[in-house]
Design a protein that fits this description.
40% helix, alpha+beta, 3-stranded antiparallel sheet, globular, 422 residues, 5-stranded antiparallel sheet, 15 helices
Length: 422
């Protein structure tokens, strides 16, 4: 299978991953894996806002991408989160009911277990085959990635208690509270008008103020004994910045709770690499580089190092260009060196298809690097559309304008991640 923009899909191509709709907490399969797409289906996907799908073809035969959590767990999480958001929005509650919190805690346990069993490297996060309910999908993605970062960070370095003592006990319990906070990190957005959340272009100062209210609003919605302080720290602090330029309190460095610092990295990575009404997505490797480039400004540098080890910048099925000029598809990612995948070379430097595609493991060929991703291996390098210059204000609140534009479309992610982080 390989990732292909819906705009490039043609009739007769076979769907490799089921396409879902998530509406009001109900996740339904609309087009199932294996179906041969016709023009009406393609047009419907485009109208629904699906920007990319996985397809099966001769180029990608035998390539498989597996998500970090099962569809069953994702479906249950969408349903439960929808119930929480609807309750908070529809009834003006001052806190999320205890029974809903208990259910979410069970889901966090399932997510953590599945993330651990799937391996230590995240090469497939975005739920390409779904549309509607962006906030719910985003919250689940942030939970998955945040738990991966938190698990790796705490198992390596432990955590500090209120006395500043480093400890290594109760890690799973703390991860459970971290995961609950990650699922609920955007619950405060129920107080923000939908017209503001989905507004194309830049927000006015008043609209920006509305956006900046959601961390504190979320913290108020989970007041009480049902949600621990460790989870509330995520909700109120996920827009704080390492350099003190975040909100709502302008905390800096270790003044920001570890859980909130983890959430900040996961939140921005998924927000930048996901498609929204008001902003086209960036390729995964550019979102990856943006996070690396924001170490020490927006993000805790130590956590960015962890992020760089658990996220693969080029997901399986991505079309890429190598430093040799050859084109191909990412066939496999490697946990011990996530920036040097195995690539199935399918096209020569001129973009002509090869009669006999071959695979190269870049771990064994250090002189060859991935230069960029492209829509299709046969595309010329200048075929990619320019990135939009206007980012949504909420992302720019986390990353300054200079930070947000630091990643260019031709920058190379190399294996020596430490060089980027200092």
């Amino acid at each position: 299978m390989r990732i292909l923009s819906v705009s490039r899909v043609s009739p007769g191509m076979r769907l490799a991953q089921t396409v879902y709709s998530s509406h009001e907490g109900v996740r339904q399969a609309l087009l199932t894996r294996g179906v041969a797409l016709n023009q009406a289906m393609i047009d419907a996907l485009r109208r629904a806002g699906v920007f990319a799908i996985y397809v099966e073809d001769g180029l990608s035969e035998g390539i498989r991408a597996a998500g970090p959590i099962s569809d069953r767990t994702r479906r249950e999480a969408v349903r439960s989160l929808a119930t929480v958001f609807a309750s908070a929005q529809g009834h003006g509650r001052t806190r999320v009911p205890e029974e809903q919190v208990a259910h979410l805690e069970g889901i966090v346990g399932k997510i953590l277990g599945e993330v651990r069993s799937s391996g230590s490297l995240l090469s497939f996060l975005d739920d390409l085959g779904s549309f509607d309910a962006y906030t719910l999908t985003h919250s689940i993605n942030v939970c998955v990635l945040g738990l991966m970062i938190g698990d790796a960070a705490m198992r390596a370095d432990g955590w500090r208690d209120y006395r500043g003592m480093r400890r290594r006990d109760d890690i799973d319990a703390r991860l459970g509270k971290l995961g609950l906070g990650l699922l609920l990190h955007d619950v405060g957005k129920v107080v923000v008008p939908q017209s503001v959340l989905t507004k194309p272009g830049r927000l006015t100062d008043d609209e920006m103020d509305m956006i900046r209210q959601h961390p504190e609003a979320g913290a108020m919605l989970v007041e009480g004994g049902s949600v621990s302080a460790l989870a509330r720290a995520v909700i109120i602090g996920h827009h704080e910045r390492w350099d003190g330029r975040g909100y709502p309190h302008g905390k800096r460095r270790e003044e920001i709770h570890l859980h909130a610092r983890i959430a900040a990295v996961a939140d921005v990575y998924d927000a930048v690499s996901s498609d929204r009404v008001y902003r086209m997505r960036r390729p995964s490797h550019e979102a990856y580089e943006l996070v690396l480039g924001s170490a020490g400004s927006a993000f805790d540098p130590a956590l960015v190092k962890v992020f760089s080890r658990v996220v693969a910048p080029y997901p399986v099925g991505t079309a890429v260009v190598l430093s040799t000029g050859e084109r191909g598809l990412v066939a496999e990612n490697h946990a011990d060196n996530c920036t040097r995948p195995t690539v199935r070379i399918t096209h020569d430097p001129a973009g002509a298809p090869l009669a006999h595609p071959d695979e190269i493991n870049l771990v064994d060929h250090l002189s060859v690097t991935v230069v960029d991703s492209v829509e299709d291996p046969g595309d010329p390098l200048d075929a990619a559309p320019p990135l939009p210059e206007v980012e949504h204000a909420e992302v720019l609140a986390d990353l300054s304008i200079d930070d947000a534009l630091v990643v260019g479309p031709r920058r190379v992610v190399d294996a020596q991640v430490g060089e980027h982080l200092g």
